[in-house]
Write a structure and sequence with these properties.
This protein has about 120 residues and is α/β, with parallel strands linked by helices. The protein is about 35% helix and about 25% strand. The protein has helices at about 10-20, 55-70, 95-110, and strands at about 5, 20-25, 30-35, 40-45, 80-85.
Length: about 120
């Protein structure tokens, strides 16, 4: 993730969640908020109800990989928070599902350039 840094502070998470646009998917709720930087900031929130640590870490890896694949196609200057839906079924989890959720959210937000990698 070249042009991206992580959101770690809970105040920054709350700012994006409260002021940003919400986009729902099958697995993820995505919040997008314009910032004043030339960098994107992403935050991941996967609660303990999602399962044990190995499940939560797998979810994080899949989200990061999907984002990395789309990173060159999205505009710079946005704060993005991905929240795992508790009711999402881990057994049916696959890379394509997460990737499609993120891509659909970015298209709805208007930050995905179609000419980029796909």
């Amino acid at each position: 993730m070249i042009n991206t840094i992580s959101i770690k502070d809970s105040k920054d998470f709350q700012k994006v969640i409260n002021k940003g646009q919400w986009f729902g998917g099958d697995y993820l709720s995505t919040y997008v908020l314009k910032n004043n930087d030339n960098l994107n900031q992403i935050g991941l929130a996967i609660g303990k109800k999602a399962g044990k640590a190995y499940k939560r870490n797998r979810i994080k890896r899949l989200i990061k990989e999907s984002y990395t694949k789309l990173e060159n196609s999205i505009e710079h200057g946005y704060d993005i928070v991905f929240i795992w839906k508790i009711k999402a079924n881990y057994e049916n989890l696959n890379y394509e599902g997460i990737y499609n959720d993120i891509k659909k959210a970015f298209k709805k937000a208007g930050i995905l350039n179609e000419k980029g990698n796909d």
